[in-house]
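Archive entry: two folds, one per protein. Generate the first.
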Amino acid sequence: MAEWNRNTPWRQGHLLSQDAITTLGLRHAARSEQTVVIVASHDCDLAQAPEGEPKIEIVIGCLVTDKDGNCTHAKNARKLHVEFVGGDTFWAEFEATAKSSIEKLKLNEFYPRSDVHLTAENHTIFQMWLASRYRRSAFPDEFERRLTRETKLADKIAKAVRPHGELITGVFFDVDEGAEVVRSGPDDTYTLDISILYDPDVDAAEHAADEVANTIKTAFKDKLFTSTQQWLHIELRFCEHIAESTLSYADFKRLKRWRLEHISLAADPQQSVLAE
């Protein structure tokens, strides 16, 4: 291939060929025979001359036969399941810890795969997932403790979403209407509004989102609503499904995405979570 320049055929979201993967020694640690390698660097960075930016970022992933609904639509900051379409449509799994880099001039010896690609929507999802590692919502420590450890309701939410994961594009929280309030004791409750976001253009998505919302409402009421009609720990005021097309930009800025993974929250001592 000619010298690297702004006309490079490589773009963010392109896959390396098997020849490139083998030559460059890029193999998935656990499933080497199913290795998939994707370009993560932005197109503008790819266009820069190797003298200034000699390397590009990639993510080493693998093929999956059973996608996990909680890993689609960038709902999990650590792991992404995304579909590639074309002559050989398939799903692939990428993990944030599997990022690596290669020299542009070495990649310049190969062309990207042309038989499969990310759709425009899935390319956006890939970008959102890359950003989510560094842009996550932060919730009060006490709220997270109540939701994840005290009540295990975080697991209930993840379990409710998982069967419909591909149809649900996001789970968003509004805790205490955005105010930072220190709560103490089960009677000093956080107020929580939950929005289950779905794509109105996808068949069955609204029904799935409604089912998820109802399951979550039942779980909260069974766990935290007492026989004396009082909420303990967290008062669930609202949990409804909402179409992407009706979510305003103002609401989007106000709400915080709840990521469907809890490794950092379950650590002892608890690890920090960056704000979204």
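Generate the second and append.
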Amino acid sequence: MELIYLAIIFSAIVLGLTFKRPLYQAILIAVVLAVILYKIPLLEFINMARSASLNSQTIYLLLAFYIITYLQRMMEDKEMLMLAEISLEQMFHSKRVNAMAAPFIIGLLPSPGAVLIAAPIVDAAADDNLNANEKTFVTSYYRHISELFMPTYAAILLALKLTGVDMTAFVVSMLPMVFVLFLLGFVFYVKKIPKNKTAENEQNKKDSVYSFFKALWPIGLTTILILVLKIQVFYAVLPAIFLMMFIHKFTLSQLKKFAVKAFEAKMLLTVIVVMIFKAVLEYSHVIETLPEVFGILPIPITAVFSIIIFLGTIVAGSQAMIAMMLPLAFSAIPDAGLGELVLFMSICYIAMQVSPTHICLAIITEYYKTSFLSLVVKTLPILISFIIIASLYSYILIRYIF
């Protein structure tokens, strides 16, 4: 019955999105249904919602999102994002490269707000050649590719720690799948952006490179502080903001204006609602029933865990599934190693691109005024293709290499 309830809950989300309700409203409906179906006592739910809204993880997400948005407003005021787009075009003479490379580079910044910095560059590169739904997908998709293989993300570090797989071997083995992601995004959407037909600008390439880094140095500085010094996003962004204040001599009135414009109430509310939804699902323990249900299927055990991880990630998010399922999978699968981890992490990654618990998806759909459902629809062809390719690649790793 728990799984039937889960299906009803997610059907409610889909129905709400079909009627073009904001994601936070659709998930609020799902939360109410979950409380009723799983018979969660009202007092227990109130405590759960308060804890989910005020815990350190939620507060950190809200602060990180706000501070990144503040930095974005400062960069927009000085047209730095436009300069980055122009510099990329002068370096490669390709708006297609702009649409793919800029979100990927900015995506090295592990913050939900980073996707908003990439969006204006994608807008300029795609122009009218991609519709709003396609721009939503391209921005979100390329911004998240680094989460597949970069060991600076918590989910990957947790997976490596739980399985004992060598970090370098994992990163190297994931690189072909990174190439696959870039290729699939190009084939399905980016190729709609026409090749540049204007003559190449004779500007020195070194000048273009300098202009590009001049435009995105705040993101570069923040990323270095996070990756090298392991500073949290909120604190890592502050030096860039302070340097921007002095370099560009922003007035107090301008800084106050940025503070107001960086406050996106609907997006912040969505973050809180999603965190409450995750807490309710964890309380129901529905994920823990999945191995028993799918274990009776007449398919290999690796495929069973792949299905569980895919569905569980959509429901509860990647970190929850990695923590719960990877130890169990590596205990149940004889001689499990790098090949299995590549498969499970690839599936976990792509499932997050259609998960309503993924904060970035709520943020980017709100930015483009598109629906979460339309983003899922745009993602499905690549999701299916990527899972097939990842399965074949992992089979080769398991059967013939490792």
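Annotation attached to the second fold: The mean pLDDT is 84. Residues 57-143+206-264 form one domain.
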